[in-house]
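Let us work through a complete example step by step.
Step 1: write down the sequence.
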Amino acid sequence: MLKRLIVPIALAALALPAAASPELAESWGARAAALYTESVGYLDTARTGEAPALPDHYLIDLERFSATATRLGTWNDQVSGAKDLGCIFRGMAEEAEVQLTALEAAKSADASETALKRLVTLFDDAQEISVAAAWAARHDGQMPDGSDGIPAACPANPAMAGRITSY
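Step 2: predict the structure and record it as tokens.
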């Protein structure tokens, strides 16, 4: 009985990276824009010296953002996408997880402020990366003009591959 449940779940998990697409990259970028706006509001609260009350939906959205970034990294690697974008996606996933943990452990407004500053920067960068990844996927892995800001080398982080979660 248990085997009947585990096999379909395992097969579905394997299919997750294949379900990623340029459209998912664009959607992820749009979600990054929304999270950016929401994070700026919480950051403003933290800057007043008051620890912001972070709603559950915000924390869940951070986890989803991270999981989707991991999926996009795997997808980019599998479709021979633009050089280094897979690693950048995984790095962004890891950074979101690190800052989520920091927010959950924050005991002061200053600690919250530090994590939120990093998240605001992350979400700003994610919007640009999502556009570049979607464009590159539609143009045989070539990066759009003006994308010189992407690092030339990005070490892979295979430890993140096991952190893919579905939502």
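Step 3: interpret the result. The mean pLDDT is 80.
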